[in-house]
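In response to the reviewer comment on reproducibility (Comment 2.3), we provide here a single inverse folding case reported in full, input and output, so that an independent group could reproduce the run without further information from us. The structure tokens appear first.
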């Protein structure tokens, strides 16, 4: 029995409605979006040190030990990978040859860093102790008697 053209049109229309509903449902569950994100890095503060605490006095052939507190005001710990005390300086004009050397005795290297903890607040820095040795050899001139010696500490670190 032949199909009537009206039935064919109705069947096609019903199929089209079903196809359109399926496409709408698919489009309803599919979404695409975009946006941007930002972050700002802080500027790290340098490590600082306090006044040295020294035990003993220097004379030719003698050595003394001391310690420094290294302070970290950053909100993250810093690993000291290098600590060097520079050549001894004095304001005693008669001390032409000091013969004094400063040596850091706390290990602070890339393979064994000295970790300075993070600050716990703006007024409470993290601290670690750095030990050193000062030594006077026999080349010190007589004008060095009674002189005071200083050295600048250079630190390198990483977070």
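Designed residues, in position order:
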């Amino acid at each position: 029995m032949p199909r009537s053209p009206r039935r064919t049109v109705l069947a096609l229309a019903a199929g089209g409605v079903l196809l359109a509903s399926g496409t709408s449902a698919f489009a309803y569950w599919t979404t695409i979006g975009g946006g941007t994100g930002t972050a700002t890095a802080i500027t790290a503060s340098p490590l600082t040190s306090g006044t040295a605490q020294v035990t003993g006095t220097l004379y030719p052939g003698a050595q003394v030990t001391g310690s420094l507190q290294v302070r970290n005001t950053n909100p993250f710990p810093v690993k000291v990978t290098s600590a060097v005390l520079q050549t001894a300086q004095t304001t005693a004009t008669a001390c032409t040859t000091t013969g004094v050397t400063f040596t850091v005795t706390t290990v602070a290297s890339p393979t064994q860093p000295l970790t300075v903890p993070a600050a716990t607040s703006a007024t409470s820095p993290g601290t670690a102790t750095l030990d050193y040795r000062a030594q006077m050899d026999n080349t010190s001139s007589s004008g060095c008697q009674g002189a005071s010696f200083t050295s600048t500490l250079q630190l390198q670190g990483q977070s």
